[in-house]
Amino acid sequence: MSNLTFAIIKPDAVKNNYTGKIYDHILSKKFEILSAKLIKMTKKQAEGFYEIHSDKPFFGELTSFMSSGKCMVLALKKNNAVSEWRNVIGATNPSEADEGTIRKLYANSLGENAVHGSDSDENAKKEIAFFFSDSELILNA
Ligand code: IDP
Ligand code: MG
After folding, report:
1. Number of folded domains in the chain?
2. 110 in any annotated domain
């Protein structure tokens, strides 16, 4: 079981000025931030990142949204990071997310749902490598 996961504060949350609140939430749940940066994805980058969903009907909408504005990408560390972070963010659809989860607190729709979280250790590794070089990950501080 890996202790790393990958998170994105999505363009809706950045636009709505929830970045600070979500940072606080991450730290209050005792995740260590190994790396973080503000980026704006190109449509091609978003298509590469979400390749796993390329056959879904919402792929165009999703990749347009994810390349529509700034987002914050983060590598997070905690024991059992993938499932711990999925618990903290809540269900994909904010209307089904538990009280107190990030999506319940800061998201308004299924498509624009404030945050991303990896769904497996394998994908967490791939997703971190998609956005961060080894030298950007502060592993021993
Ligand atoms: P997840 O982000 O909770 O892992 P996934 O099923 O992997 O959810 O979907 C990836 C992202 O695609 C979601 O976070 C959401 O932004 C978007 N998405 C998922 N289902 C739909 C949909 O039915 N309509 C529009 N966007 C969707
Ligand atoms: Mg997913």
Report:
1. 1
2. yes
Probe residue for ligand 1, chosen from 98, 113, 115, 118 as the CB with the greatest number of ligand atoms within 8 Å: 113
Q: Which residues contact 49 (CB under 8 A, 6 or more apart)?
A: 41, 66, 127, 130
| pLDDT mean over 100-121 | 98
The C-alpha angle with vertex 21 and arms to 85 and 112, in degrees rounded to 5, equals 65
Model confidence over 13-56: pLDDT tens digits? 999 999 999 999 999 999 999 999 999 999 999 999 999 999 99
60 inside domain: no
Instruction: Assign residue 99 the CATH number of its domain.
Output: 3.30.70.141
Q: For ligand 1, is residue 5 a contact (CB within 6 Å)?
A: no
- 118 by Cβ neighbours in 10 Å (0-12 / 13-18 / 19+) ranks as buried
Does 55 map to a domain? Answer: no
Q: Write out the residue range of the structural domain in which residue 86 sits.
A: 4-41+68-136
